[in-house]
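Appendix B, example 12.
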Amino acid sequence: MKVVARKFVQDVGILTVANLIGAGLNLVQGILVARWLGPELYGVAALVMTYPGLVYAVFDARSVAASVKYLGEYHARGEADRALAMCGLGYAVDLAVACLTFLVLVFTARLAAESIVHDPAVAGLMILYGAALIPRALVGTSNAILATLGRFPFIASIEIVTTVLRAVLLVGLVLGGWQVAGVVWANTIAVTATGLLYGAVAWVLIRRTWGGSVFQGKLKALKGERRQIFAFLAYNDLNALVGIIPKQLDTLLLGYFRNPTEVGYYKLAKSLSSVTGYLAGPLKSVAYPELARLWGLGRRRAFSRNVRQLAIWIAFPLGMAVLVGSAFMSFALPLLVGESYLPAVGAAQLLFIGSAISIAFFWLRLIYLAKGHVRQLFILNSSVTGVFTLIYPFVVRDWGYMGASACMLARYVVANGVSGYWLWKDSKKKEKHGDVTWRGKQTQTIEKTGERLAESVPEKT
């Protein structure tokens, strides 16, 4: 038996190549822009785009996870009317969130510019970047549609095109003397193009696959599952909202308590460590739809086998590779961006270790989502984040960007440990009470928490 299915390897390979191209371009243009702007202006540019991102994250319903889960089930069962309804629901929710975000930015941008960036002149740039979030709202559901249908080459192509566009615009505008405004304009245009491209491709696929448009999808087609879907959306939204607090609040607090120079150090360290996300991203994009499909069809044995293979043969080796790579930051970072960023080395190493842990255990979150355990995931994440949020302002105030980096690493360790422990306890509890029984090559599963009674499905070997 093969360790990983050939189709899985092909899809992951396609997305990985696209992500590596994107990572290379982002790394090169990021280094060049950081050199040209210097730590202070680089920090200002980061703050200008962080605030709109934070506002959007507060309202964002994160419909993509729900869309992947339920579109996968409906498509597997040939329920075109429900698939169209789910597409329409996803687009409607995301566009409403984007419009609300833009309105909030219009009224609060000046206050944010004065209190966070300490420069009211950048308020217009915040609003400009916020406007790009409206077309960007098409990305989430469109990506879910492409992933459900296995059209990963389309996803890869769009990501490459928009990454190249962003890199060219960034380098050109900054070289042209636009400085912070050039960074914001380049990202605004690239984000807008990404949303429009995703939307156009998904629109064609919806018609070809389910024989209609999103406007033909009726919410009543989801009768019997609407409560479950909205509960998934609500808890996933809360869970993601909790997750963005440390990811966005760190930069804003540094700007408030410290200065743009420290923000520049931290932003560079964070950007470099986030490159590792290009490794985990394709794995999540390919693995989650398949895990959701297997769980929805009641194929529990295949589900468990896929999770084991992800963890042992992919996640853990990648995590170790990133961990080893963190040791090279001490001489690689100054070589890449210059001696002026030498203070950022320690922060980069801490964040790289955190990224290694995140990659090694990325499959934990996929289990929660595929099983629909979004409520439990929210409770766990909110508890961990709540503790760190209480101490975070004091750490940033007293220890600056190094304290922020150490806090981020500690949160990765605790969050993954708690998530893994709950799944282990849950599996032991179900074994004890006989909620899951195995008979020969058939799986019989009884779920009383919103899951349908799954019919026994022969397990292929």
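Confidence is low (pLDDT under 50) at residues 436-461. The CA atoms of residues 428 and 434 lie 10 Å apart.
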